[in-house]
From TrEMBL:
It holds the Pfam family PLDc_N. This is Phospholipase_D-nuclease N-terminal. It is a multi-pass membrane protein. Residues 15-57 form the Cardiolipin synthase N-terminal domain. Keywords: Cell membrane, Membrane, Transmembrane, Transmembrane helix. Coiled coil: none annotated. It is found in: Cell membrane. One of its GO terms (cellular component) is plasma membrane. The chain crosses the membrane at residues 6-24, 36-55. The lineage of its organism: Bacteria, Pseudomonadati, Pseudomonadota, Gammaproteobacteria, Oceanospirillales.
Amino acid sequence: MGIEVGGLLGLIWLIIVIWAIVKVAKSSAGGLAKLIWILVLLFFPLIGLIIWFLFGPKG
């Protein structure tokens, strides 16, 4: 049972990170800012997602 729960949580986490990357890509931020945000989200998923929620491009 633990493997299924862990797999489900991992899938949910992956969906959240992908959603954040799509939101960054569609934002009005400049190209370099988008690239930096996407790299932060990819390489530091937990901290990057928190920082993006607080300081990321809006819109």
